[in-house]
Amino acid sequence: MYDFICVGGGISGVSFAYKASKYAKTLLIEAQDYDREIPVRTNIFAEHNKPFVDDIFWNDDSIFPRPFVQLNYKSEKHDGLLNSEEFGAPLGKISHTEILIKKLIDKFKDQGGTTQFNEKITKIVRHSDHIEVINNKGESYSTKLLVLATG
Fold first, then answer.
1. 55 Cα distance to chain centroid
2. Which InterPro entries match (predicted)?
3. How does DSSP classify residue 40?
4. Rounded to 10 degrees, what is the CA torsion of 36, 64, 92, 115?
5. Where are the alpha helices (H) located in the chain, listed in sequence order?
6. CA–CA gap between residue 142 and residue 23 (Å, rounded)
7. What CATH number did the domain enclosing 80 receive?
8. SS (H, E, C) 14-32
9. pTM beyond 0.90
10. Domain that holds residue 30
């Protein structure tokens, strides 16, 4: 039995699983085959999210290659360009999210976390003392707490 099962291997699910695996037996389930390839994703990682990222990742230029300094915005009343130099600090960093996900999964496994890739959850059963999830192969896993991070 797992303390946590996290369904969904995007940035939210993997971040949760990584943090939880420091303290509890954790299983991460992802529908895509991450053993073969993690889809390429480039995102903007906001500066206010920095407290939730370990410095080992935040300072890694392969994940966060450059600061995010300009933002175009458009609304019904306003249209313009926001430059972070007006505020004295970057708005965040450009991120190669697939690299961050890969490194988080590696650390997750180093901490004893378990992964199941290329699996879809087809059924969730609530029992009096645990939750059971059943995958597309008919296999089941039990947990005390289920986290759905499927986007």
1. 16
2. FAD/NAD-bd_sf
3. P
4. 30
5. 11-20, 55-58, 97-110
6. 18
7. 3.50.50.60
8. HHHHHHHCCCCCEEEEECC
9. no
10. 2-148
